[in-house]
Design a protein that fits this description.
The protein has helices at about 5-15, 25-30, 70-75, 280-290, 465-475, 490-515, 525-530, and strands at about 50-55, 60-70, 85-90, 90-100, 100-105, 115, 120, 125-130, 135-140, 160-165, 170-175, 185-190, 190-195, 195-205, 210-235, 245-260, 270-275, 305, 315-325, 330-340, 345-370, 375-395, 400. It is mostly beta strands. The protein folds into 3 domains: about 1-35, no CATH class; about 40-205, no CATH class; about 210-400, Beta Complex (Proaerolysin, Chain A, domain 3). The strands form 3 sheets. Strands 15, 16, 17, 18, 19, 20, 21, 22 and 23 form a 9-stranded mixed beta sheet that branches. Strands 1, 2, 3, 4, 5, 6, 7 and 8 form an 8-stranded antiparallel beta sheet that branches. It is rod-shaped and about 180 Å long.
Length: about 525
């Protein structure tokens, strides 16, 4: 592979979805940028190939998650730190390509790779990707079984070491099938050296991970309102209990959850993992995000609550169990209880809603690697946490209605009482004369019709001049009310005037009756003579 294409090959191997795939080679050599959160580890090395190790399944090779073969140019440019290189004494484990063959070798003090007695300038070295791999040199001889996890040079040979006559240890090629039961070979000063015993380079993978001392920094938060479901609550007419009784229903719903703690370079994907998130970290996330309390749903998959210290008044930490580097989540079913106070023969429709909140947070933590022999290794790591949860689940009930008619029914909410205000009572004494105020005319019913006027039957026997008598009779029966002043002086003069008027009226009536003469009906034709 040419030096011009090598940087682009490194980028495409690490970040196959990178937009730099569309750039020319000379630009891609400069714009070597990380493509995801998996490249957040400070001492990450750009590698060309992954390392293979010996598995326990019929001695097949598997890909290592923590080791890689890095170009010597990456080491010289500083992309690979010196403490990431696998060393034996003063030599590093290296290999070079010869066409389609991969040849094992070791480095010398001049910086070249000794391969089959010759020195190569373009080669690869064995590196620890994230600085968290557990590499050990374990003793091996021809009577021993191959160690599980032995690092391979190629499809046939493995990385080993042997002792020279002067007790100097150098890197050699271990082949389990060569000779009687395998051997280790190396070329020293042009001579082939073989040993049936030595050491093998073995990678020991952890059995599980644990994240501790997590520090979160919220980067992004999105919220979506969800309608989870509804239920009709009813109370029959034959229901027992008081006037008002609480009716209860169950709403089942489905929501989406997601929990992804990201992937850290040099770690084994898929191992069981545990993360302990302190309660103050969770509270800070909710406060910065402006979200309310959590819902009563199951939450993210693999999450459980644990007591950080136990006892009353102590902090409760949040504990997550998941598969390392694998996003977990999907559809989740939840159950929530709803209730409403109803009268007999009424019902109400109650709906359930919530917020689907997605938070993306950068975090720094201590990654604890737990091995089968009980040993622990701790390493600082950085990654991205993406979490989707259902929060703020609440119910909303419609106003109650009668089941028989569908009309609105009374509610339990009493009408607001009018504000009580006390004002000082004042007593005023008026010196004005008291007047009776006229009452308003009732308008509920119309006034009664006036009485029908009946003709006087006496007019059939008496002349027209007697109409004055009828007028006087009408005046006797009528009553006229006049408003008078309450002043004593004016009251006495008005009384005298009324008495005088009544006296004159009586005299006029007597004189009219004395001048009346009876005339029979037979002489009605001579009425004009009488007049």
């Amino acid at each position: 592979m040419s030096a011009r294409i090598l940087p682009l090959f490194l980028l495409l191997l690490i970040c196959p979805s990178s937009p730099l795939m569309l750039l020319p080679h000379h630009l891609a050599m400069v714009l070597l940028l990380p493509c995801s959160s998996t490249l957040l580890l400070p001492h990450l090395a750009l590698v060309t190939e992954r390392v293979h190790t010996l598995s326990s399944y019929t001695n097949q090779l598997i890909t290592s998650s923590t080791l890689g073969w890095a170009s010597i140019r990456d080491v010289q440019s500083g992309l690979v730190k010196p403490d990431q290189i696998a060393l034996v004494g003063r030599s590093a484990v290296c290999r070079a390509r010869d066409g389609v063959d991969i040849l094992p070798g070791r480095t010398d003090l001049s910086g070249g790779c000794l391969v089959e007695g010759r020195k190569e300038a373009n080669y690869q070295v064995l590196v620890d990707l994230g600085g968290i791999a557990r590499l050990e040199w374990k003793r091996w001889d021809m009577f021993s079984s191959p160690h599980i996890g032995t690092v391979a040079f190629n499809q046939r040979s493995f990385v080993g070491s042997l002792l020279l006559d002067d007790d100097e240890e150098i890197v050699g090629e271990l082949d389990y099938k060569r000779g009687m039961n395998g051997d280790i070979q190396a070329i020293v000063d042009g001579k082939l050296v073989k040993r049936t015993e030595g050491r093998a380079l073995v990678e020991t993978e952890p059995v599980r991970y644990q994240l501790e001392e997590i520090q979160l920094t919220l980067d992004k938060e999105d919220s979506e309102k969800l309608q989870l479901g509804s239920i009709q609550l009813e109370r029959s007419e034959q229901s027992e209990g008081g006037e008002w009784q609480e009716e209860v229903g169950i709403v089942r719903y489905t929501s989406t959850s997601l929990l992804n703690w990201g992937q850290v370079a040099g770690t084994v994907r898929g191992l069981p993992a545990k993360a302990v998130l302190e309660r103050n970290q969770t509270t800070d996330q909710e406060d910065r995000g402006g979200s309310g309390g959590r819902s009563g749903s199951n939450g993210s998959k693999g999450r459980s609550g644990g007591n950080g210290s136990g006892g009353s008044g102590r902090r409760n930490d949040e504990v997550f169990h998941f598969r390392w580097g694998i996003p977990e989540g999907g559809p989740e079913e939840g159950v929530t209880r709803v209730s409403a106070a109803l009268q007999r023969g009424t019902g109400s429709l109650c709906s359930l809603s919530g917020d689907l909140v997605t938070r993306e947070s950068q975090y720094s933590a201590t990654l604890v690697s737990v091995y089968r022999d009980g040993s622990l290794r701790r390493h600082p790591v950085n990654s991205l946490l993406v979490r989707t949860t259902l929060e703020n689940v609440s119910q909303t009930c419609s106003p109650p209605t009668f089941l028989s008619s569908g009309l609105p029914s009374p509610t339990t909410t009493p009408p607001p009482a009018p504000p009580s205000t006390t004002s000082p009572t004042t007593t005023t004494t008026s010196t004005l004369p008291r007047m009776r105020t006229a009452r308003p005319t009732p308008t509920l019913f119309p006034p009664p019709p006036p009485p029908a006027h009946k003709p006087n039957p006496l007019k059939q026997f008496y002349p027209e001049f007697l109409e004055a008598e009828s007028t006087l009779d009408t005046l006797e029966d009528s009553v006229q009310i006049a408003m008078v002043s309450s002043s004593p002086e004016k009251l006495s003069s008005s009384s005298n005037f009324i008495l005088l008027l009544l006296l004159l009226l009586q005299i006029f009536q007597i004189s009219s009756l004395s001048s009346f003469k009876y005339v029979p009906a037979s002489h009605s034709a001579k009425t004009e003579d009488i007049l």
